[in-house]
Specification:
Layout: H1 10-23, H2 28-42, E1 54-66, H3 70-82, E2 87-94, E3 99-108, H4 110-122, E4 126-139, E5 143-145, E6 148-151, E7 155-158
Antiparallel strand pairs: 1-3, 1-4, 2-3, 4-7, 5-6
């Protein structure tokens, strides 16, 4: 565990304490860890140097679009199908008679996931796009669970 000290001005310190109380963190350290994780995900892991254990990432890409724009809906579908190996899930939530929020889960190499996420969010007519990206490490050691026999496949585990 690494320790470091930070200095905050009074106003920022008060806001941070309010966040800790509002989110019910048990310690400042846990709040800081979550903020760092959020910042790393928001930075999109692009251009960041990680240990060799980071093999891929998983991302939730969410955006709002107008379902009455049939060509846009067709382009979104075609893009997901073109990357069917990375698009592991898709959920659509109607917001009103013409707007829909779509959430697509992508999994794969960091650069490829960002490329597909950018393509989805940059299509003309897509609004409020955001990608939450989590780095994954490939733990290739055999695992044994109390409820299942050992299995030799790898597990993609979120980077702490």
């Amino acid at each position: 565990m690494n320790r470091f000290t930070i200095s905050l001005d009074e106003q920022l310190a008060r806001q941070f304490e309010m966040l800790i109380a509002q989110k019910r963190y048990t310690s400042r350290s846990e709040a800081v860890r979550d903020l760092i994780r959020y910042g790393l995900g928001r930075a999109g892991l692009r251009g960041m140097q990680f240990d060799a254990v980071v093999s891929s990432c998983i991302a939730n890409v969410s955006y709002v679009y107008d379902t009455r724009e049939l060509a846009l809906a067709a382009r979104l579908l075609a893009l997901r199908h073109a990357h069917h190996g990375m698009a592991v899930a898709c959920h659509q939530t109607p917001l009103d008679h013409g707007s829909c929020m779509e959430c697509v889960v992508l999994r794969g190499p960091v650069a490829a996931v960002h490329d597909v996420a950018d393509q989805l969010m940059s299509l003309r007519g897509v609004r409020h796009g955001h990608a939450n990206v989590v780095a994954l490490t490939d733990d290739a050691t055999p695992h044994a669970h109390a409820h299942a026999p050992a299995h030799p496949h790898s597990h993609l585990t979120p980077l702490n």
